[in-house]
Amino acid sequence: MTYHATHFFDTDIGPCGITWTEHGVAAVRLIEARAVTAEHAPPDQVRDAIEAIQAIIRGEARDATQIPLDLARVGDFERRVYEITRAIPFGSTMTYGQIARQLGQPGAAQAVGQAMGRNPVPILIPCHRVLASGKKLGGFSAPGGTATKERLLRAEGSLKGEQRSLFDP
Is 126 a member of any domain? Predict the structure, then answer.
């Protein structure tokens, strides 16, 4: 597989990079700073992905399930985990254990959590909507860790049932 290009864009929580192939979006990374200035103009489907990511981070409901992804580098277990995770609606959450049970592997909650940590396209596969048991935040591999995860969930109204800005206390 050959990566076609990478493009950097801004979001309400900082810069983000997106990489695509001929099959779809292959990687999304929230980054602390833009380290590279050379980039390519994204094609229409990648521009749609960028707009969806920016909207979701702003706390706007957006269905990103139709954006083509290239998950050729992930294993079968991860692919199944990501399919379930991608279907979690805006403003909703699931736990690692719920996903494991939906997979028919009730003892695989830890493996589900590890798959979330390897998610190549966060936001488009909304791993921030997956919580630990007892509805605890669990981990988050983007810059800012669980604080970023909490801000995303608050913006979506997933915490305490209220819609809030990313920057509200």
Answer: yes
Whether 127 is a known active-site residue: answer: yes
Q: Are residues 80 and 146 in the same domain?
A: yes
Give the angle subtended at the CA of 82 by the CAs of 45 and 107, to the nearest 5°.
175
Judgement on whether residues 41 and 106 belong to the same structural domain of the protein: no
Q: Which of 127, 130, 152, 155 is an active site residue?
A: 127
Same domain flag for 94 and 147: yes
Q: Around 48, how many Cα atoms within 13 Å sit in the side-chain half-sphere? A: 13
Instruction: Give residue-wise pLDDT tens across range 101-135.
Output: 999 999 999 999 999 999 999 999 999 999 998 88
Report residue 22 CA to chain centroid gap.
Answer: 20
Three-state DSSP at 137 gives: coil
| DSSP one-letter code for 43 | P
Enumerate the β-bridge partners of residue 17. 8, 29
Render pLDDT for 58-114 as a digit per residue (tens, 0 to 9): 989 989 999 999 999 999 999 999 999 999 999 999 999 999 999 999 999 999 999
CA dihedral angle for residue 34, residue 91, residue 87, residue 62, rounded to 10 degrees: -60
**Nearest alpha-carbon partner for 127 in 76, 165, 114, 60:** 114
* 3-state SS, residue 97: helix
